[in-house]
Amino acid sequence: MSQLPAILVTTTDFARLQHLLEVSLARTAEPLEAELARARLVAPQEVPADVVTMNSDATYEDLATGARRTVRVVYPPDADAARGWVSVLAPLGSALLGLRVGQEIDWRMPRGVRRIRLVAVPSQPEARGDLAG
Length: 133
Prior knowledge:
This protein is of the alpha/beta class. The protein is globular, with a radius of gyration of 13 Å. Helix content is 22%, strand content 30%. The chain has a single domain, classed as Transcription elongation factor, GreA/GreB, C-terminal domain (Chitinase A, domain 3, Roll). The protein has 3 helices and 7 strands, in the order E-H-H-E-E-E-E-H-E-E. It has helices at 11-23, 29-38, 91-96, and strands at 8-10, 40-42, 57-62, 68-74, 85-87, 104-109, 112-123.
């Protein structure tokens, strides 16, 4: 895998996700824990609108296939595959959290390592003025 890109996480998301990790016994939480450990924290009002925060819609491209998809990164209870709502504990959710448009990341998915690029953040709570996420 190549070097991981710098990521931004709001202080509000960080606190909530830390709590989630404390109560989670799932091994699937380990990638998220590693991502949070390397994140640069910013106040919700300071996060750029092109960064994936919790409850953001994110359009990404699989660089191997060229396929594009838009998903929403959500907390585990809100995950809903039919709606395209991906848990932050899922490999894709962890990979997208904190990325900025144009950044790429190699991430271990169920079918092997994939390289994805964040193409757009069509909707982000903080950009809409929802600073509580």
